[in-house]
Specification:
- This protein is α/β, with parallel strands linked by helices.
- It has 6 helices and 6 strands, in the order H-E-E-E-H-E-H-E-H-E-H-H.
- Strand 4, helix 3 and strand 5 form a beta-alpha-beta unit.
- The longest helix is centred in the C-terminal third of the chain and has 23 residues.
- The site of pyridoxal-5'-phosphate has 9 residues, from loops.
């Protein structure tokens, strides 16, 4: 498995790479607003061009919304830039410290993934760990559920 790196905001370079490696690139992964770099933002025109290039070359566009999701706009960077990813990832922006993440995307791709998604490396022995994780999640969710149903301050009712 190889990764090719392209200069941000350079749609010509991206097109060159997609042409040079036609048929062998599965996906393009972009974080349009870089949450770990003081929010450095890509040019919206570049992200839209990347969307078009992915469509033209049959490449899955993955947008990393780990930090931008629900923050830069309700619909994340995809709403802000009027672009739709094939797959997108959410984590810190929805989790705020809790071990929660979300992978969303096109139904045909999501159906292929089924239940086999796990965080981090290595992801291979997922199935055997899956049950233990589910038990741990239930254990973590219990206090969260009960505190969410309790008012946090006098006069403050849960939504
Ligand atoms: C913007 C962004 N994307 C992806 C990741 C990777 O997340 P994980 O380590 O949960 O796979 C991080 C983690 O710091 C991140 O900040």
């Amino acid at each position: 498995m190889f990764a090719h790196f392209v200069q941000a905001n350079d749609a010509n370079q991206l097109e060159d790479v997609l042409k040079r490696h036609a048929g062998s690139i599965a996906c393009l992964l972009i974080e349009p607003i870089m949450g770990n770099c003081l929010g450095i933002a890509a040019d919206p025109a570049y992200i839209r061009a990347a969307r078009e290039l992915c469509d033209r070359h049959g490449v899955v566009l993955i947008i990393d919304e780990v930090k931008s999701g629900f923050r830069v706009a309700r619909g994340g960077v995809q709403e802000l830039y009027s672009v739709q990813a094939d797959l997108c990832t959410f984590a810190k922006a929805i989790a705020n410290g809790y071990p929660i993440s979300v992978l969303a995307g096109r139904e045909d791709i999501m159906r292929k993934i089924g239940r086999g998604v796990a965080h981090g490396v290595p992801t291979l022995r997922i199935r055997s760990r899956w049950r233990r994780r589910r038990r741990r999640c239930r254990y973590l969710m219990k206090p969260m559920r009960s505190s969410a149903s309790r008012p946090t301050a006098p006069g403050c009712e849960p939504a």
